[in-house]
Design a protein that fits this description.
about 300 residues, alpha/beta, five-stranded parallel beta sheet
């Protein structure tokens, strides 16, 4: 086993690492997922796609006090490995072994029993409201995929969550343009439109280039960035629901994920209200065969 990963038995161990060590940990964790699934069978492509996100969430948030609610349960192998079940991965989906999905009786880090799909936002919303009623200070984070977002239950939860002023609720859309089969319908077209809408990003980068030699103006531009954004990018659907939308960002880039999650955590702790983070990932990331054919490697049996 890789040396760095072998030192991580709980997320508290993870949070003791320096940020500069996390990319190496991601490489080791991805290799461990690949080797484990090759020996036991199970879900592969989806788990290779959530390695960096899982590390970043457990690094920034104080789990298990902060609640992670995974929507599609078969993308949680990295989560299981980092939360004390690394050595049990050899028993995955076997009699008396660990489950291939989050299971509340298995770990305090599995906050909600889930298979598939579209229940995470409702569950995280309920946890956030319950914590507020009890006077408990904690964050609730729902991680939902683009395929699961098409269900009515997800939109009902957005509809209710967006009007809860100051609620420490974060919804992360893990957008890989693929459930088990490519998603269809209006929402998929809308997400593609968000991805292709590069005008704002290009305008911002051009502005930085022009202003970089004028520090006072550059500082002013940074302070006005959020207000200026609204002048060139229409409010997203999620903002219309009452969420503060950020994204899309690269879900495999820890240098982008970590500061963004830290910023969002600060907003949640200071009454910023419900937040929505849109990340883009690739199924099968880091294993070429799975990247090229994520359907075949979605749930393979044992393989070499």
């Amino acid at each position: 086993m890789s040396a760095l990963l072998s030192t991580i038995n709980t997320p508290a161990d993870l949070r003791r690492l320096g940020k500069e060590q996390l990319p190496a940990l991601a490489t080791q964790l991805r290799e461990f997922v690949l080797q484990s699934v090759a020996q036991t069978g199970g879900h592969l492509s989806s788990n290779l796609g959530t390695v960096e996100l899982t590390i970043a969430l457990h690094y920034v948030f104080n789990t298990p006090e902060d609640r992670l609610v995974w929507d599609v349960g078969h993308q949680t192998y990295p989560h299981k490995i980092l939360t004390g079940r690394r050595e049990q991965m050899q028993t995955l989906r076997q009699l008396d072994g660990i489950s291939g999905f989050p299971r509340r009786t298995e770990s305090e880090y599995d906050t909600f029993g889930v298979g598939h799909s579209s229940t995470s936002i409702s569950a995280a919303l309920g946890m956030a409201l319950g914590a507020r009623t009890k006077g408990e200070k904690r964050h609730s984070i729902a991680i939902i995929g683009d395929g699961a977002m098409t269900a009515g239950m997800a939109f009902e939860a957005l509809n209710n969550g967006g009007v809860q002023a100051g609620l420490p609720l974060l919804v992360i859309l893990n957008d890989n343009d693929m459930s088990i089969s490519p998603p269809v319908g209006a929402l998929n077209h809308y997400l593609a439109h968000l991805m292709s809408g590069r005008f704002y990003a290009k305008a911002r980068n051009a502005g930085k280039h022009v202003l970089k030699n004028a520090p006072p103006l550059f500082a002013l531009a940074k302070r006005l960035e959020e207000q200026a954004k609204g002048m060139v990018v229409p409010a997203t659907l999620f903002e219309k629901f009452g969420f503060n939308y950020t994204g899309p960002i690269d879900g495999h880039d820890l240098d982008a994920l970590l500061p963004q999650l830290e910023n969002i955590k600060h907003l949640l702790e200071n009454g910023g209200g419900p937040q929505f983070l849109h990340i883009v990932t690739k199924k099968g990331q880091g294993y070429e065969l799975a990247e090229q054919d994520p359907v075949t490697y979605h749930g393979p049996g044992k393989f070499d």
